[in-house]
Amino acid sequence: MLANRRTKDAAGLVEELIEALGAEQVSTNANILERHGRDESYHPSVAPDVVAFARSTEDVVAIVKLAAKHDAPIIPFGVGTSLEGHVAALEGGVSIDLSRMNQVLEVNAEDLDVKVQAGVTRKALNAYLRDTGLFFPIDPGADATLGGMAATRASGTNAVRYGTMRENVLGLTVVLADGRVIRTGGRSRKSAAGYDLTRLFVGSEGTLGIITEVRLRLYGVPETMAAAVALFPTIGDAVNTVIRTIQSGIPVARIELVDEVQMDALIRYAKLDYPKQPALFFEFHGTEAGVKEQAEMVAALGEEFGIGGFRWTQKAEERSKLWEARHNVLYSCLALRPGGKALATDACVPISRLADCILETRKDIDEHGLLAPIVGHVGDGNFHVTVVLDPDDPKEMKTVEAFVERLALRSIAMGGTCTGEHGIGYGKIPFLQAEHGEGVAVMRQLKQALDPDNRMNPGKIFAA
Amino acid sequence: MLANRRTKDAAGLVEELIEALGAEQVSTNANILERHGRDESYHPSVAPDVVAFARSTEDVVAIVKLAAKHDAPIIPFGVGTSLEGHVAALEGGVSIDLSRMNQVLEVNAEDLDVKVQAGVTRKALNAYLRDTGLFFPIDPGADATLGGMAATRASGTNAVRYGTMRENVLGLTVVLADGRVIRTGGRSRKSAAGYDLTRLFVGSEGTLGIITEVRLRLYGVPETMAAAVALFPTIGDAVNTVIRTIQSGIPVARIELVDEVQMDALIRYAKLDYPKQPALFFEFHGTEAGVKEQAEMVAALGEEFGIGGFRWTQKAEERSKLWEARHNVLYSCLALRPGGKALATDACVPISRLADCILETRKDIDEHGLLAPIVGHVGDGNFHVTVVLDPDDPKEMKTVEAFVERLALRSIAMGGTCTGEHGIGYGKIPFLQAEHGEGVAVMRQLKQALDPDNRMNPGKIFAA
């Protein structure tokens, strides 16, 4: 993709950035530019004109003001783990790298909240919290920055119990397109004071402002954690067990589905000691008695659906072992086709439609001869098809793109969404329109109000 | 208060409304106008020019378009239980009464969601759900409409467990100022598709659009519910027990504080068999074993703080009896001063500052000789001072207003909010500015983008 470059006097901008921030905070090194135009998806890199490394909200203000002067687009960058091309500099401009904003600013243990700079990663935060008895649960897999997770409304494996970034961000510091700084939200558990600006910026993908600080909700480390794996005759049986579990209000911390194709990949990759059958991976958090009760209730609910091989453990070491398989999913998929790249879809449907959606999708995959295991955070109705593909084969890419479109529209038609947790980026713009119709026009009006020159991550969420 | 009337040719507007909706859906009866300009607060009625009763989203569109033609303000009205003058027609215009939009449109028991017209009240919804094993937990006290609860981001006694309307509204149908209709959100548990319009309209108090339909999250009726009352030597001891309970992650369904002044009022009003001591009222939801465990944990945590008279029960009848006292709070306050009116404040602070905030506030009340018991949804850090006053005594009103201002600013200074659940209306506009600073300018930009002529509930949230 060729960038439609719009920065006026890019060389002058670079000079002014160096003057404002110092040379060690500005780079035009080709490798660094290339790296900042690319995330973990199969989308190609679209490099910015310059990368500016911010160390503070004030740095971001300075960068935003200089960019405005040169009509340069601004693209926030954390560690580049997004999956829909969010960081691609489609019109060139300044990539603001926030990874040096890596300070934990406040821990309020009594109030179960923490304030971090946007570049702190979730693993770094949890390492910092280790001795407090508290943790931040949201786990999208990648060790993403908390600013990036807020910007893309990330979630992951334990959203079924703890919610997504929508529920767990208490407030934000945001630098707006004109350089103003606002602080949204607050430290109280709830508020009815004015419009919910926090939730407006969570999930806005850098298109309304640059998130520089994030206040998050924390949780006490559960007294007991237990993991379980269960096998099922069919994927429908596994999904029906999930549906029954959710409907019974059992507060499971994680429920992950692995279909038989994915189990096969895992068995080959990690020499797993399981039969090639659809499986559910559970995690339970609570008191010792509560966890035991939850596991027993799930096992009992699964009986109707032929649950088998139910193994469960409270021991940390065995727990990691049970989960290891789930963590190897991506590598096991890539191992199926050396040199292939992975495209992850992100459908999310009402739980009652989950079996239908997964079964129709499995049929679609098989009919089109795709190599595509399924895993899912099924407690939320969210599942990912990992299509292993060759991005340099145009015919295959066309087949895959048609499949991706059918899946997004199938999910929307079932009352679901084209993206449960990855966001729109620039890959899913047509599906956003299909999902929200006139609502997209309203989103555009909000964008226009806060970023009239369309300089904040242009070409994302909305077509340029 | 005199309305700054702006409707052009009000008589012509009434005629056109009758033509569009039929005479039985339009009223200019003086009593009806007066009733629609007033909520349950001490704010005086400011009557609209006309009341239009809507039966459908299409009716609302027709009303909004006619109002636009006449530059008439539009004020949504449910059952008038708001507490900050939200329904006052400060510039005249059309009050859209949504109480006839009282249909439950869909119950999706499998997905734990329901879609209702905006005029369905929370009690009507729960009566409708009675045989399904599901319920909608948010309980602000009043039998408010669900549209009104969404518009004011209401919560109440069991938000500590189930969240507020922010967490429990899945989607909305909204009629915009220009007559466009949008449907926000969706039926899947989570989505990362574009800006969170649902959360933008929740809490917007009718200033951005008219909510006509609401999709809500439901919960399974808990297997077991238990209630408990505990007494404490001081209010600080009671609050410290709450703080410890929340920090321990015990999933209490309700924790209500009643201070000694309020207990005294209740003892006099309802001849309660309790000593005049600060009390906590608890409710626990869960499995039988879980509920027992929760109650035992709370009783153990309270020992350090002199917990006494701990009574608990799982029996429905005894449960209601324990809660009866809490439900009589408003009447018991009014009984303290026959002919008086009640003004309810709405501070909400981080839980670690709750004891400080309540103790300083109690001192403030006593120093200024106010008659003002304290109750609170203290699990959220939210408490209400019920000031019993004579609105016709200007000197007293001045003393009360100064107290209200000190309390709001005290709450904000402690990292809290001027309103935990009542909203801004037109009583709290200066405090919104104190709380959110430059953020209010951003809220105004959003308002300007969606309602450029300022016709949607003008004078609320922002000064006219």
Oligomer: homodimer
Q: What percent of residues of chain A are in strands?
A: 15-25%
Residues in helices of chain A, as a percent range: 25-40%
**Unreliable stretches covering 5 or more consecutive residues of chain A:** none
- What is the highest CATH level, the class of the largest domain in chain A? Alpha Beta
Radius of gyration of chain A (CA) equals 22 Å
Distance between the termini of chain A: 14 Å
Outline of chain A, from the CA principal axes? globular
- Provide the residue-averaged pLDDT of chain A: 94
CATH topology of the largest domain in chain A: Uridine Diphospho-n-acetylenolpyruvylglucosamine Reductase, domain 3
Q: What structural category arises from helix and sheet content of chain A?
A: alpha+beta
